[in-house]
Amino acid sequence: MIFLASESFKTDGDIIPREKLLHYVQAVVRSSLTELGYAQDLIRYLEEPQRILKVKIPVKLDQTGTRVFTGYRVQYNDAPGPTKGGVLFHPDIEVDKLQAMSMWNGIKSSVLNLPFGGAKGGIICDPRELSFREMEGLARGYIREISPIIGPDKDIPAMDASSNSQVMAWMMDEFSRIHPEGLSTFFTGKPLIFGGLAKRDSAIADGITVVVKEAARLKKINLNHAQIIIQGFGSAGSLIAKSLSRSGIRIVGISDAYGGLYAPEGLDIDELLDSRDSFGTVTKLFEQTITNQELLEKPCDLLILAAIENQITDKNEENIKAKIVIEGTGRAVSEHAAESMTARDILLVPEILAGAGDVAVSYLEWVQHLQGNIWTNEEVDRRFHQIIGAAFQSVAETAEERNMTMRRAAYLNGIQRLAEKVRFRGWI
């Protein structure tokens, strides 16, 4: 099944009008490079993607004739190595949005210190209106058009929220037909049988679990006795809850669109997951619930925001009693609230770091391809934890040294690594 991609873009900060997403990411790049003391030539170079390719994809329809779809591939910067990013299938795709996403992917990869530049692709279509065969034709046609600029050392297409492993298998197969002399398994998000990783589906949740452990260690919180609240119990929040629960961590509060559940002694997460209705909600099955806002303001050790953006602002920031707040979704905490909470010694871990598990898993799948290895699940977990843990420690050190939020520290770390790779290559 193909799902429509989210309309929202995962960045951090205050509410940003959709048409200004690119301006926001460019402002992050400019302000970070200026703060780091880089010259204007390099700032101008990194504030825009290197390449934007527009393609036309003819697809024979099941019923009548042929329809021509428009697709794009945007590559931000390949100074770190090959660019990498997903492919969106959505009726409302704009080039500015793809540019912003490609830049964000590049920064996020650099925050993890991975050898990827950012990329993003998109095809203007409504996948709900296409048959299985038509989707295959569209995926294969897209690869035929962008094949000259992709490859294991050029650009790595990845699975996105609007696609699945079957789509990636079609793309991989089409590339192998065009380039039979080379390995085609560099695509990430592939089926397991072609070298995909089982960790793919839980990557973001598992990354947040690693961040929870690192943040607790930094704040000297014993997770065996900690109280954790998760705002959001949908596809993301439920996976986070499952991952934490299986690590033996006590969750005392969860919420969905209908309200929240809070039990200081701990909730039975497996029972709640089994009790969800066909819409994925659970709280309306209970008589005693609280509001989402009340749950946010409950005392706890860690608060994980996995619902929607703009949950903590200057209007409610003073009521937050958590010692650690982790953004499991983009823009969950406003910029002003982030500064205020940091001043109150609340540790805020930004989404660009906490939500980077999918990037780490893509990297590990790519490395398997390059080395021709098949790692055990335990080996993948070990390498995954190492990547996320090292990135967290690096961002925390920068935040401490510069007396700033972890959000700003993550931006500086990622963007400085990009700039240094451009500089050492002698491009600017």
Automatic annotation (TrEMBL):
Catalytic residue list: 120 (proton donor)
Domain Glutamate/phenylalanine/leucine/valine/L-tryptophan dehydrogenase C-terminal: 202-426
Keyword Cell inner membrane carried by entry: no
PANTHER family: GLUTAMATE DEHYDROGENASE (PTHR11606), GLUTAMATE DEHYDROGENASE 1, MITOCHONDRIAL (PTHR11606:SF13)
Residues flagged as site, Important for catalysis: 160
Keyword Oxidoreductase: yes
Protein name: Glutamate dehydrogenase
InterPro entries cross-referenced by the UniProt entry: Aminoacid_DH-like_N_sf, Glu/Leu/Phe/Val/Trp_DH, Glu/Leu/Phe/Val/Trp_DH_C, Glu/Leu/Phe/Val/Trp_DH_dimer, Glu/Leu/Phe/Val_DH_AS, Glu_DH, NAD(P)-bd_dom_sf, NAD_bind_Glu_DH
Lineage: Bacteria, Bacillati, Bacillota, Bacilli, Bacillales
PROSITE patterns cross-referenced by the UniProt entry: GLFV_DEHYDROGENASE
Entry keyword set: Oxidoreductase
Native source species: Sporolactobacillus shoreae
Gene Ontology BP annotations: L-glutamate catabolic process
Molecular function per GO: glutamate dehydrogenase (NAD+) activity
Sequence similarity: Belongs to the Glu/Leu/Phe/Val dehydrogenases family.
